[in-house]
Design a protein that fits this description.
Rossmann fold; SDR_fam; NAD(P)-bd_dom_sf; about 300 residues; SDR family NAD(P)-dependent oxidoreductase; oxidoreductase activity; oxidoreductase; single chain
Length: about 300
């Protein structure tokens, strides 16, 4: 592609394609869904809260008149909900799966299955979802799995496979988030390796939004974010962040650009990958460690009870 900045207008027609976006009720997920719907795809908005997601569906239809879209309930912090979602989706074709939903820097809590909430939601829920939907993806020529990571993966100094759920160490919510985002990248790159080894054409690719003004930092499981933290987040969003629409561009490029290849990683091209048009970017060397990725995959299979590839 030329040096022209990639925008949503570069997306080819996605008419006839089926896409699932997790966490599509707000922020990056909603903007990703809007972009894919505008290109003609049929969208499944996979969200935890029916109330909040119905408002998102109305917003999508307002912004993309005539959009083809539907809501389906999905709680990534509950493996029974993930299985129910995959069962409900059934045997339909699936061209694009965007593993976007996430929680960030929460006080210690566990999922329904006993996982630490951030690794459980951000990584293990998506690991299970991808595996359960894999037969549909493999049956659809040219399909893609886009996993949304974060520049925060570079800060993951506490990534301990023998204590993934922080039962043996003092809990650090920022480190737990960074580790969950490192897990997203390890997963995406290992998925690509396994697909290639098996001779499948399915594309596994990762993206990150840079520093985007969304409400992920403001939302906590129990509303425990204090007024000072909220103020700091809002000031940071106002001064340094790009819009949620800008933050969604790397995911949209990963999902729709014909030039994208498996194993790539897309993010903003600006300083520190904070803002800017989406380009292919580098990641921390740890994210590319195949042995670490293999062990994480193995452990993810064990705790979710789901084996694939």
């Amino acid at each position: 592609m030329s040096h022209t900045a990639w925008t949503r207008a570069h997306l080819p027609s996605l008419a006839g394609r089926q896409a699932i976006v997790t966490g599509a009720n707000s922020g990056l997920g909603l903007e990703t869904a809007v972009g894919l719907a505008a290109a003609g795809a049929h969208l499944v908005l996979a969200c935890r809260s029916p109330e909040r997601s119905s408002a998102a569906l109305a917003e999508l239809r307002r912004r993309v008149p005539g959009a083809s879209a539907e809501l389906m309930r999905l709680d990534l912090s509950d493996l029974a909900s993930v299985r129910a979602f995959a069962d409900q989706y059934g045997g339909r074709r699936l061209d694009i799966l965007v593993n976007n939903a996430g929680v960030m820097a929460l006080p210690y809590a566990t999922t329904k299955d006993g996982f630490e909430l951030q690794i459980g939601t951000n990584h293990l829920g998506h690991f299970a979802l991808t595996g359960l939907l894999l037969p549909r993806l493999l049956a659809t020529p040219g399909a893609r799995v886009v996993t949304v990571a974060s520049i925060a993966h570079r800060a993951a100094s506490g990534f301990a496979l023998d204590d993934l759920h922080w039962q043996q160490r003092p809990y650090n919510k920022a480190q737990a988030y960074a580790c969950s985002k490192l897990a997203n990248l390890l997963f995406s790159l290992e998925l690509d390796r396994r697909l290639r080894a098996a001779g499948h054409g399915l594309i596994a690719v990762a993206a990150h939004p840079g520093y985007a003004a969304t409400n992920i930092g403001l939302n906590t499981a129990d509303g425990e974010r204090n007024a000072l933290e909220k103020l700091a987040i809002r000031i940071g969003n106002a001064l340094f962040a790009q819009s949620a629409a800008g933050g969604a561009l790397p995911s949209l490029r990963a999902a729709g650009d014909p030039a994208v290849r498996g194993g790539e990683y897309y993010g903003p091209r600006g300083l520190f990958q904070f803002v800017g048009a989406p380009v292919k970017v580098g990641h921390h060397p740890r994210a590319g460690d195949p042995e670490l990725a293999r062990r994480l995959w193995q452990q993810s299979e064990q705790v979710t009870g789901l084996r694939y590839l």
